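Hi all, posting the design record for the shared folder.

TITLE: backbone redesign
STEP: 1 of 1
STRUCTURE INPUT:
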C-alpha cells in the first residue's frame, strides 16, 4: 500500500500516451527496416524503452532538490567529458562526438542538455526573482556558452543550437526586461550576420544544412537529397497509404536513415497522410 501511495501523484495518463507513442515507433521501425540489413533493429528499441521506463521510475523516487544540489558537480564532470571527447573521442563522419567505454559509446553532448536545464533553473532560482542585471545575464550566457563552444568545436552545430532555447527560456522566466531583450536580440542578429558573412567560422556544409530545407532542389543529390526523398515518400503515401509493412520499398522513394531521421516520412507513406 505504501508503494502505491508513493506514486499517487504520478501522471499515469501521460505515461500511457508515451507508451502509445513508443509502441507506434517500434512498429514503424519494424516496418521501415524490413527487407534491409537493419532487420531486427526494432528489438533494440524495445530494450531501450524498457530501460528508459526502469530509469524513469528510479529517478521519480529521487527528490528533485537533490538533483539541484548535485547539478554543479554534474556540470563540471560533463565539461571534462566534452574536453575528453575532443582529445580522445571516436571520430565518425569527420566529427568527434563519442567516448568509447568498452563496447559502449557515450555521447556527453546529449546529456549536457539535461544538465543545462537543471543548472539554468538553479541559477535563476537562486537569484530570488529580483530584476536581472547585466552581470546576471552575462553569467547565464557563460553558463550555457562554455558547453556550447566545446560542442561546436567537435564539430556538432546541430546539438549546439539545441542549447539556445534553454538559455532563452531561462532568461525569459528569470525576468529579463524588454530593454535587455531588445539589446540582446540586436546583438544576436548582428553576431549571426557576421558569422554567416565572414566565410571562416561556418563551413560550407554547415551553411548548406541550415539553408537546404528552403530549396532542396538546389542540391538534389547532396544536402537536399534527404528532404526531397522524404517529400516524395510522404506524397507517395497519399491519403490512404501506398505500402504495407511487408511490402518492400521501391528504390525510387527510399529514404536514407529510414529508421532514424526519416521515420516520419515512412509513417506517412505506410499509413497515409
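Okay, here is what came back for every position:
SEQUENCE:
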Amino acid at each position: 500500500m505504501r508503494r502505491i501511495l508513493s506514486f499517487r501523484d504520478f501522471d499515469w495518463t501521460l505515461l500511457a500516451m508515451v507508451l502509445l507513442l513508443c509502441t507506434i515507433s517500434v512498429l514503424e521501425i519494424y516496418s521501415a527496416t524490413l527487407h534491409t540489413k537493419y532487420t531486427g533493429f526494432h528489438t533494440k528499441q524495445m530494450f531501450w524503452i524498457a530501460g528508459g521506463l526502469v530509469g524513469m521510475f528510479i529517478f521519480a523516487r529521487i527528490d528533485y532538490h537533490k538533483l539541484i544540489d548535485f547539478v554543479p558537480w554534474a556540470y563540471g564532470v560533463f565539461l571534462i567529458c566534452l574536453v575528453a571527447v575532443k582529445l580522445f573521442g571516436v571520430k565518425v563522419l569527420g566529427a568527434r562526438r563519442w567516448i568509447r567505454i568498452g563496447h559502449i559509446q557515450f555521447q556527453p553532448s546529449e546529456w549536457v542538455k539535461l544538465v543545462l536545464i537543471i543548472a539554468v533553473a538553479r541559477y535563476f532560482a537562486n537569484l530570488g526573482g529580483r530584476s536581472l542585471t547585466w552581470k546576471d545575464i552575462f553569467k547565464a550566457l557563460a553558463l550555457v556558452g562554455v558547453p556550447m563552444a566545446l560542442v561546436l568545436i567537435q564539430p556538432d552545430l546541430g546539438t549546439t543550437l539545441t542549447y539556445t532555447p534553454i538559455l532563452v527560456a531561462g532568461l525569459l522566466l528569470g525576468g529579463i526586461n524588454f530593454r535587455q531583450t531588445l539589446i540582446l536580440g540586436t546583438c544576436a542578429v548582428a553576431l549571426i550576420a557576421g558569422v554567416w558573412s565572414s566565410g571562416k567560422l561556418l563551413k560550407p556544409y554547415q551553411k548548406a544544412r541550415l539553408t537546404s530545407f528552403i530549396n532542396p532542389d538546389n542540391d538534389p543529390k547532396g544536402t537536399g537529397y534527404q528532404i526531397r526523398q522524404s517529400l516524395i515518400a510522404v506524397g507517395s503515401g497519399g491519403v490512404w497509404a501506398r505500402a504495407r509493412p511487408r511490402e518492400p520499398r521501391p528504390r525510387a522513394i527510399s529514404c536514407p536513415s529510414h529508421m532514424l531521421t526519416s521515420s516520419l516520412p515512412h509513417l506517412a507513406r505506410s499509413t497515409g497522410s
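COMMENT: The first strand starts at residue 90 and ends at 92.
Let me know if anyone wants the other runs.
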